[in-house]
Amino acid sequence: MLVLGIETSCDETGIALYDNERGLLSDVLFSQISLHRAYGGVVPELASRDHVKRILPLIRKVFDKACCVPTDLDAIAYTAGPGLVGALLVGASCAQALAFAWGIPVLGVHHMEGHLLAPMLEKTPPQFPFVALLVSGGHTQLVKVDGIGQYILLGESIDDAVGEAFDKTAKMMGLNYPGGPEISRLAEKGVLGRYTFSRPMCDRPGLMFSFSGLKTTALQAWKHSVSAGDNSEQARCDISMAFQLAVVETLAIKCKRAMKQTGMQRLVVAGGVSANKALRTSLKEMLGDINCDVFYARPEFCTDNGAMIAYAGCQRLQVGQHNGLTISVQARWPIEQLVPL
Fold this sequence. Notes:
Layout: E1 2-7, E2 12-19, E3 23-31, H1 33-37, H2 44-66, E4 75-81, H3 85-102, E5 106-110, H4 111-117, E6 130-135, E7 140-147, E8 150-156, H5 162-172, H6 179-187, H7 212-227, H8 233-262, E9 266-270, H9 277-286, E10 293-296, H10 306-317
Parallel strand pairs: 1-4, 4-5, 6-9, 9-10
Antiparallel strand pairs: 1-2, 2-3, 6-7, 7-8
Helix pairs in contact: 2-3, 4-10, 5-6, 5-7, 6-8, 7-8, 8-9
Protein name: tRNA N6-adenosine threonylcarbamoyltransferase
EC number: 2.3.1.234
Family: Belongs to the KAE1 / TsaD family.
């Protein structure tokens, strides 16, 4: 089955072609980072307009790269949520229109299921069951995964998602958007121990997260530094290092708890923040004594992309799942609501 995947949940237009027998044939991605940088964050209306501009040329490009034509397609999968409603509607409308014109099935895919299954595109994919840590700009969740659609939420953030906390902390210190990579870049030059931030909610049992207080602590440290006459690059580096270390160790501690609680031996880490090198190092150190295998998607598939949507859609389309002609998207969509295969 050859599936066209369309991802437009936020500020990246991702298109891909995936075949269940031949694997990933082609994928392209256009990022709107330069468009939104001037505003310090994603502007939903601008994101939607840019998706409209990019989507059809990118679809033509993936067909050319794969040496395919539309008549080769068996189905289309698109991101139906969660995400920005306007951006989602661009992808959904395009997918539905093309599916109607070409006479093929179409299916709306859960964005986070796409991230969760992205490591399946690698040469050595994880086997079910496993625990998944989903970390992105909008989500921080620990999920027990027994199969596709068989998800039990173990814990999530009660306030800011981890990616959101990175971006907001960076913005408070006057760093460029997106803030996550900026924090990570500066953290590499930080002085260990100049600042020490607490590991939120790690002093109590459970698998819930909270990053709002940590963000406030970083802001107070920055304000204190500025008031003391030190608003230097090194001050930013030191605060970035302390902030990032607190975040990644918190995530690693909760992952270790989840592995022990479930008895699982496989952990999948997915979403944009999964590309963070410090997080990968912390997980390796924290999980080294419990015989746990950790799986990631390749770096280009950690962030939003069409390949993960094409793959996730293909798994469901193969068992007969598809949508009608109604265009429907969801800004919020709990992953536990998905139908098991």
